[in-house]
Design goal:
The complex is a heterotrimer of chains A (231), B (231) and C (208).
Chain A (H helix, E strand, L loop, with lengths): L1 H17 L2 E2 L8 E2 L11 H28 L2 H33 L7 H21 L4 H18 L2 H9 L6 H4 L9 H44 L1
Parallel strand pairs in A: 1-2
Chain B lengths: L6 H23 L1 H21 L6 H19 L2 H9 L2 H7 L2 H30 L8 H27 L4 H29 L7 H26 L2
Chain C lengths: L2 E12 L2 E12 L3 E5 L6 H8 L7 E8 L2 E2 L5 H4 E4 L11 H10 L7 H10 L15 H13 L5 E5 L7 H17 L1 E5 L11 E4 L5
Parallel strand pairs in C: 3-8, 3-9, 6-7, 7-8
Antiparallel strand pairs in C: 1-2, 1-4, 4-5
The chains are: A mainly alpha (231), B mainly alpha (231), C alpha/beta (208).
Chain lengths: 231, 231, 208
């Protein structure tokens, strides 16, 4: 699994960076030049997957949280916080890559357009989630409270979709790369893009399972230490 | 055995008892009211000093009004749950009243507190700050009332969460901000519309967002409250 | 009316440490349940579980009257608790606190009953003084009144003799005797002499 993932991601990165960009793609291995962005459009292969995953990770964390509230199985809470931890990292990467892209495209690192604001708010939510977790000592309570908070956060986040359009006009390149809102990407770009998305998702899932395993073992050993102390 | 009334009448009585208890207690000790008052006066004074004899653009003033209200609310709205926890009366409530009654009673209390805070802040702001004009009063009135209820709804459930954690004070704004952000953006928008003299109908979008926010947050809070409140 | 309280296989864990497991008993009207164990054995935790303030990690509790199970939302009407962990409201008077004892439970206010109870616990002269002026013994009496005002079928007492003088202790014994006649009494204490008699004993020390 590790090997496949490694080869896959290497291939994606290589193709994303090296395939030539020409105005009129003649061959299957060429990308079209996207107006106004040029070479920098390559960042779409890295920025968008990390952004999508950071949102998906939050949903996953919330789902595991709800499972915990129903069954009270500590393993669900473990998965919830692991999913959130990785999501936090991906969110941070997405914000940074987005910011870099913004600098190159629009001249400043931050512009408060709707997508930027949502990823920023997601970052705040992740931060708040972990601040809450570190403030509760009793495990069962920590699990319930963080599950509840993630539910409340998930429920209020969609409001941004309705609020933001009324606040500022969008600067995001959606209109440029994706004029009809459909997946309107040149076939080669699409292939590389989707592969990148798959690759990042695989990466996330792989790190997630390893972390869950590690933390399960950690919590078992703490549990056993506690038992030894009592006996 | 005392006569058993219909469960819903009992529930309303319970809600009323909790609201009146918090209200009477607040009138006697005046903790939350003093905190709110001091906060509003201090922040408006700072704004006045920094503006000097100049006046800022109306859009900026609209935003600042809600900044003052947000932070003042943060200083006072958590008291209703934190105080019960600190004094050991949480268990008294857990034993005698239903979770939903506790939530609704305290929500009502916080709504009254926030509405008072809003009225005071708006009055001081209008009197003291140069350049703050409201041309369409009807929009502003609805925005302030709905916004207040929205603040109370989100602030109450977050207060219930942090009351069970250890580092209550600093955690409260950290958890509340991402949840309240859509609300804050919407009320600022609405205030700007009112300040610019827009027609009442133009603010319908804001009203819709506010009403749905309130409904969603309260509905979810009632559903999850027992997980927060009971151990 | 006969009431029955049954507990089966109750377990509670905190931070994955088990406080107790497998607590099972049954009690009926006229019975006394004694919960004994040294400090830290989980007596107060078990009481909190039985009064539904805490939820069990495993196991079930049922309260029934005349054979019909009483749903959880109605428990506050049938259960009274006196515990060192449960406080009353300092800024209110004795009378106001007892009013709350009724209205929080959704019951209509009953000034006559409040006065009756204040008289019972010997605090009728201080009914309008705020509780923060009371001594700890007096507060314990108010807590007792708070627990009795709605005539609960099951009365839970956690370390009931705390802070009480001889007159207070006599009061508690009277209350316990009355409760044995009317319903179920559950007492959690280190000191077995606190109860005159008991039918069921839950000894938290005798567990692993």
């Amino acid at each position: 699994m590790r090997l496949t993932l490694g080869i896959w991601m290497t291939a994606v990165v290589v193709l994303a960076i090296l395939l030539p960009m020409v105005p009129q793609p003649q061959h299957w291995y060429e990308f079209p030049v996207v107006g106004g962005l040029g070479e920098k459009a390559r960042i779409i292969f890295f920025h968008v997957p990390t952004a999508w995953l950071s949102f998906l990770a939050f949903v996953a964390s919330m789902v595991y949280g709800i499972k915990y509230l129903r069954k009270r199985n500590p393993d669900d809470d473990l998965k919830s916080s692991t999913a959130a931890g990785l999501g936090f990292l991906f969110c941070f990467l997405a914000t940074v890559t987005g910011s870099i892209w913004a600098k190159f495209s629009w001249g400043s690192f931050w512009n408060w357009d709707p997508r930027e604001t949502s990823i920023f708010v997601l970052l705040l939510i992740y931060g708040a989630y972990f601040a809450l977790r570190s403030a509760v000592e009793v495990e069962e309570k920590r699990a319930s409270l963080s599950a509840v908070y993630s539910i409340i956060a998930a429920v209020t986040m969609p409001f941004f979709m309705f609020v933001m359009p009324r606040v500022l006009a969008s600067l995001h390149p959606d209109p440029i790369i994706n004029t009809q809102g459909k997946v309107y990407m040149n076939a080669t770009m699409l292939v590389v893009f989707l592969s990148s998305l798959a690759g990042f998702t695989g990466l996330y899932y792989w790190i997630f399972t390893i972390q869950v395993r590690i933390r399960r073992m950690e919590s078992l050993s703490i549990h056993h230490e506690g038992e030894l102390k009592r006996a | 055995m005392p006569a058993r009334d219909a469960t819903s009448i009992a529930w309303f009585r319970s809600v009323g008892a909790i609201f009146m208890k918090d209200w009477r207690s607040e009138l006697r000790t005046r903790y939350a009211i003093s905190a709110l008052l001091m906060f509003v006066v201090t922040t408006i004074s700072i704004i006045l000093f920094s503006l000097g004899s100049e006046s800022a653009r109306p859009e900026v003033l609209c935003g600042m009004l809600w900044v003052v209200i947000f932070f003042s609310a943060m200083s006072g709205l958590s008291r209703t749950f934190v105080m019960e926890e600190e004094r050991g009366t949480s268990m008294t409530l857990q034993l005698t009243a239903r979770g939903s009654a506790v939530y609704v009673g305290k929500l009502l209390f916080n709504t009254v507190l926030v509405t008072g805070l809003d009225v005071l802040t708006v009055a001081l702001y209008a009197l003291l700050i140069n350049g703050f004009v409201i041309k369409t009063f009807s929009i502003f009135l609805v925005i302030v009332l709905l916004g207040g209820l929205g603040f109370a709804a989100a602030a109450t459930i977050i207060a219930a969460i942090i009351a069970r954690a250890s580092t209550k004070g600093t955690l409260y704004p950290v958890l509340s901000f991402p949840i309240l952000l859509p609300l804050v953006l919407t009320v600022i928008n609405g205030t700007r519309l009112a300040s610019d003299g827009a027609f009442f109908e133009e603010a319908y979008g804001e009203f819709q967002i506010l009403i749905s926010y309130i409904v969603v947050v309260i509905a979810v809070s009632v559903l999850v409250f027992d997980y927060v409140w009971k151990d | 009316m006969t009431v029955a309280l049954t507990a089966s296989g109750l377990r509670k864990t905190f931070n994955r440490r088990m406080i107790f497991d497998g607590v099972t008993f049954e009690a009926r009207s006229g019975n006394t349940v004694l919960i004994s164990g040294k400090n830290g054995s989980g007596k107060s935790t078990l009481v909190k579980l039985l009064t539904r303030v805490l939820t069990p990690s495993a196991g079930a509790i049922a309260l029934s009257a005349e054979g019909c199970v009483i749903p959880e939302i109605h428990w506050p009407l049938h259960v009274g608790l006196v515990s060192p962990y449960m406080q009353v409201y300092d800024e209110f008077s004795a009378r106001e606190n007892l009013d709350l004892a009724l209205t929080l439970r959704g019951l209509p206010p009953d000034a006559a009953r409040v006065a009756e109870l204040l008289d019972d616990v010997g605090l009728i002269d201080r009914s309008d003084d705020p509780l923060r002026t009371f001594s700890s013994g007096m507060k314990q009496r108010i807590k007792l009144a708070f627990a009795l005002i709605h005539n609960p079928a099951v009365l839970f007492l956690d370390e009931p003799m705390t802070n009480l003088d001889a007159a207070g202790i006599a009061l508690v014994r009277r209350v316990m005797q009355r409760q044995r006649e009317q319903g179920i009494l559950v007492v959690a204490t280190n000191d077995q002499t606190d109860v005159d008699a008991f039918e069921t004993k839950v000894d938290l020390d005798a567990r692993p």
